[in-house]
Amino acid sequence: xxxxxxxxxxxxxxxxxxxxxxxxxxxxxxxxxxxxxxxxxxxxxxxxxxxxxxxxxxxxxxxxxxxxxxxxxxxxxxxxxxxxxxxxxxxxxxxxxxxxxxxxxxxxxxxxxxxxxxxxxxxxxxxxxxxxxxxxxxxxxxxxxxxxxxxxxxxxxxxxxxxxxxxxxxxxxxxxxxxxxxxxxxxxxxxxxxxxxxxxxxxxxxxxxxxxxxxxxxxxxxxxxxxxxxxxxxxxxxxxxxxxxxxxxxxxxxxxxxxxxxxxxxxxxxxxxxxxxxxxxxxxxxxxxxxxxxxxxxxxxxxxxxxxxxxxxxxxxxxxxxxxxxxxxxxxxxxxxxxxxxxxxxxxxxxxxxxxxxxxxxxxxxxxxxxxxxxxxxxxxxxxxxxxxxxxxxxxxxxxxxxxxxxxxxxxxxxxxxxxxxxxxxxxxxxxxxxxxxxxxxxxxxxxxxx
Length: 451
Description:
3 domains; 16 strands
C-alpha cells in the first residue's frame, strides 16, 4: 500500500508555482516560506493533502494572510458598552485622526519654539486649550490617569502621609488598585473613615505634621447606597486650607461638558471639580473626553511647576501623536454643539433611540437578500470606562437567529472582527456602540459569518 504522504510536493517545488511566486512578490520571503512549510507539515500530519496546485496555493495564501494579520487590529464594537476598555475605549474624532496623520508624516515642533528659534517644551502643547475649557491656572499631560496620580504624589508627598477615605480605595481595570498605585509614588497612605461612611472629623483627626495632602477619588465605576456618608471636595478644601494642605481630586472620567440633558447625571465636569476648590484635578483623556489615552493634570501653576521638574514627568511623558490628537479633540469643545456631534463617544451617548432603531432596521434590511434571519429588539446599553456606573441607556440591537455561540465565534474571528454579546441564549449586536459609518461593514461581516 502506497503512503500518500510520500507524494507530497517539496517546499522548493511549491515555491516555484506561479501562485506562490505571486505571494513572494507581495510578502516577505520568510513569511511565505514559513507558510509553505507549515502547510506541507499539516498535510503530512493529517495524512491528506490538497489535490491540485490551485488548492495548494489557496491553502498557503490563507496561511500567509493569517501570519500577516497585525496583532492590534480594528474591531466593530457591538457590545452596547460605549467606552469598552478591552476594545480601546474612545474612538477618535475625524479631526483628531487627521491631526495624527499630519504630524506623523514628517517632523514637528514637539520641543522647539518656532517663534524664538530655540528649544521649547512638549509640556506647552494643549495647555492653553485646557486652561480655556476648564478655568484651570495650568495643565500638564502625561500618559494616563494612574501616572498622573503617581507623579502628583511623588512631587508633593514623597516619604510623607496622604489621607484618603477607605470608601475611595477602589480597584480599576486589570486588577490595579488605587492604594497600590498611590503607594508606588513613595507616599504613605493613611486611611480615614469606614467603607460606607466618612466624616469631616475623620480627616481632621489624622492630620499631623507628616501629612502632605488629602486625596479624593471619585467613585466612577461603582456606587455605594444605603447608610452612607462622604466628605465633598468643597469640605475637604476647607479642611485642607486650615492646615495649608493641597487637595488632589482624581476625577477619572474627563467629562468637559454636562450630559444632564441626555439623562446622564452624577458625573462632575472638570470645571465644576476645579470650582469646588481642589488644588489638582486628575482625569483621563480616552474616557468621556473622547480623545487619546492620556492623563491630564489641572491645577495651580506653582504646583504644576513642581510636577514638570520631577524626574517621573519624563518617564510618563506623552508623544507627539498623543498631543496632536488631544489638541484636535480639545478644539472641538470650543463649540459644545460641535463636540457633541463630532466626538464619537459623545455622539454615541447622545444619539436618539429613534435614530438607532432606524439604523438597526437598515442592517436587518441589508441581510434579507441573503436569507439571513434577523430582527430588531430593544436593548440596554451602558457608558463603560468607569463612568456613570448605574446608567442604562435605551438602545436597539440586531438579533441573529441560530446558534448564538457559533455565530458569535464566527463574527469574532472574522475580518473585521465583530464583538457582540450573548444574552439569554441569543446573540445581540447593539447599535448604540457601533459607529454609524460601520453599519454597512457590520452587515457585510454578518453575511460573511453566515455564509
